[in-house]
TrEMBL record:
Species classification: Bacteria, Pseudomonadati, Pseudomonadota, Alphaproteobacteria, Rhodobacterales
Sorted UniProt keywords: Membrane, Transmembrane, Transmembrane helix
Gene3D superfamilies the record matches: 1.20.1530.20
Cellular localisation: Membrane
Record keyword Transmembrane present: yes
Membrane topology: Multi-pass membrane protein
Name of the protein: Bile acid:sodium symporter
TM regions (residue ranges): 37-54, 74-93, 105-124, 131-155, 161-184, 205-224, 230-249
UniProt main location, coarse: membrane
Length: 314
């Protein structure tokens, strides 16, 4: 039975790029499933993070991250990620003549940390997963403190965010995911995890899909009722996600190898904007944007491999 399960997960892992792309479209068309999975969203975040942590040698990653020069570089990246980027996106939005809904979407995207599955996507694409994980962890810790200040400075009368509650929630999910990932790695063993890499690709792909499904709750009704608004939000989500990935990956390639540059671009374009959905009062426009933002995110392995410099055999 175990061999059959591993074989099935391996088959999914071998086709993970297509599984993610097709799965996110099915999520859009299955509103009942979206509503049913919403209560499990925090646990799914933990699972996605744990799968990525289990596949990495955290001792080596920690030793590399704690080097003084590496720490300074990582701090500079996080400041650019969470402070400079939302300011640039806000400025571009103003120049493009976007309304309040579009500007808010841009700022909240820029002020969000990378998705917890960034390392998993990097593993799937043959990019530097350790760098993506470092950037995700540090940015996730910093985001509750930097994010609200940046949002207030750029949007002015934006709804206040409970930064401490958000910090505690994010910290708890990161701690739980990291602990679970280390436990999985200890129980399974590094050798077995490396041997069953495709099965772990499959587990990671399924976890990412189940994570995004709850975000589509109620979205289909809005699309049918206001198709033009939905199309505009989708175009904005694609432009922001793919645009940031391409610009950052190409810009970083001169200072880093393809694997590191691609991982940086992937983390920069794919953000956990859904964290702000939980922190803000219900907002149909923002909820629509966040849901549609998941589509380019899960199409990243299929469409952005060449731009990010992913290995073809990954």
């Amino acid at each position: 039975m175990a061999r059959l399960l591993l074989a099935g997960l391996g088959a999914i892992g071998g086709r993970a790029r297509w599984v993610l792309a097709v799965g996110v479209m099915l999520a859009l068309l299955l509103p009942g499933l979206s509503a049913g999975l919403r209560p499990f969203l925090p646990g799914l975040v933990v699972l996605v993070f744990a799968v990525a942590v289990a596949r990495l040698d955290m001792r080596d990653a920690a030793r590399a991250a704690l080097r003084p020069r590496r720490m300074l570089r990582l701090a500079a990246l996080v400041l650019a990620l969470l402070v400079v980027t939302p300011a640039v996106l806000w400025g571009l939005g103003r120049l493009a003549g976007l309304g309040p809904e579009g500007l808010e979407a841009l700022v909240y995207t820029g002020a969000a940390p990378p998705i917890t599955s960034a390392a998993g996507l990097c593993l799937l694409m043959g990019l530097d997963a350790a760098l993506a994980l470092e950037l995700t962890v540090v940015a996730s810790v910093a985001a509750p403190f930097l994010g609200p200040a940046v949002v207030a400075a750029l949007l002015g009368d934006a709804v206040p965010i409970d930064a401490w509650a958000l910090a505690l929630r994010m910290g708890a999910m990161i701690l739980a995911g990291g602990t679970l990932g280390l436990l999985i790695r200890h129980l399974a063993g590094p050798a077995r995890i490396a041997r069953e890499a495709r099965a772990f690709d499959g587990i990671g792909a399924l976890a990412m899909l189940f994570f995004v499904v709850p975000l589509f709750d109620g979205v289909w009704e809005i699309i049918l009722r206001e198709p033009e608004r939905a199309l505009a939000m989708f175009a904005l989500a694609v432009a922001v996600n793919f645009g940031m990935q391409a610009v950052v990956a190409r810009g970083a390639r001169g200072a880093a190898g393809p694997g590191r540059a691609g991982a940086t671009g992937l983390a920069w374009g794919n953000r956990t904007v859904a964290l702000y959905v939980a922190a803000l009062p219900p907002d149909a426009a923002f909820g629509l944007y966040v849901a549609l933002y998941q589509i380019p995110m899960l199409f990243t392995p299929l469409l952005m491999g060449r731009v990010l410099g992913a290995r073809r055999n990954a």
